[in-house]
Amino acid sequence: MGSVGAKEVPVLLSPEGLRIDGRKLDELRSIRIVAGALHQADGSAFVEWGANKVMAAVYGPREVHPRHLQQNNKAIVQCRYNMAAFSVDERKRPGLDRRSQEISKVIAEAFESVIFAEEFPRTSIDVYIEVLQANAGTRCAGIVAASVALADAGIPMVDLLPAVAVGKVSGAIALDLKKEEDNFGEADLPMALVPQSGRLVLLQMEGHMTRDELAKALDLGVSGCRSIYEKMKQALRDRYAGGTEVAA
Ligand code: UDP
User: Fold this and answer.
1) In a mutational test of the pocket of ligand 1, which residue from 79, 83, 96 has the highest number of ligand atoms less than 8 Å from its CB?
2) Does residue 248 fall inside a structural domain?
3) Number of the ligand 1 atom closest to the C-alpha atom of 97
4) Is-contact 84 148, C-beta < 8 A?
5) How many structural domains is the chain composed of?
6) What is the DSSP letter of 207?
7) Is 156 helix (H, G, I), strand (E, B) or coil?
8) Is pTM beyond 0.85 here?
């Protein structure tokens, strides 16, 4: 541990270029995706990603509530991202804070750009994301879970939506930050990719990167998304080819 002022800062990068959990800079945490994990929802998925545990449930297309949000020419996509009070070390105050509202909004917008909403006028497609355990990258884990849940619900989409955060730790660009790297690193750049077209439909940034670092981070993120995409497709194959036993 090094120290800056009163704060203990962990050593994020070893002299050999390994990270706090032994990963290389371009290495993802382990990811497990189970499609169809809930009985009541129209579609669902559970994602374990490093120490993150995230459940997504999708309902719809169904009647719009509140009614005045209804659109005559297409479905609306509503999303609620929520972190459970017990999901983090210091108990999080329950309920939708500004952070959750912002994340819900950007996730809904990301899905609006891939769902064929015009096929279901006057309806709502409702996406619920519950973070049960958080260790950075929960919005990306939420997008991955929700995307598989939307496919599980049979909602027509351009493509699945893999997502990952890239960041900067000890001056190096690193794929898929964990909590200490997110807290003590210099930048965090979550993104979601439409693999077919290569289009990014979510891109946020906290911290600072140079133009060259940003280019490198985008490349690393896109290749990370492509690996996650394969795992998402496999989860759906397992569910529908009967390869994986699920509780639903
Ligand atoms: N976090 C927390 N309490 C909060 C919000 C976040 O402990 O109220 C932690 C949690 O581990 C989360 C991480 O900080 O995953 C990073 O949060 P950020 O806002 O960057 O979103 P995320 O990386 O989870 O998408």
Assistant:
1) 83
2) no
3) 8
4) no
5) 1
6) E
7) coil
8) yes
| Ligand 1 near 135 CB (within 6 A) | yes
Q: Which residue's CA lies nearest to atom 4 of ligand 1? A: 92
Question: pLDDT of 36-63, one tens digit each?
Answer: 999 999 999 999 999 999 999 999 999 9
pLDDT digits (tens, 9 = 90+) for 183-236: 999 999 999 999 999 999 999 999 999 999 999 999 999 999 999 999 999 999
Q: Does residue 40 lie in a domain region?
A: yes
Indicate whether 197 belongs to any domain.
Answer: yes
83 within a domain of the structure (yes/no): yes
- Torsions phi, psi of 146, nearest 5? -65, -35
92: domain CATH number is 3.30.230.70
Q: What domain range includes position 153?
A: 17-240
Q: Rounded to an integer, what distance in angstroms lies between the CA atom of residue 131 and that of residue 141?
A: 9
Both tokens of residue 220? 């690393």
Q: Residue 128: what pLDDT?
A: 98
155: which residues sit within 8 A by CB, 6+ positions away? 43, 58, 60, 61, 115, 125
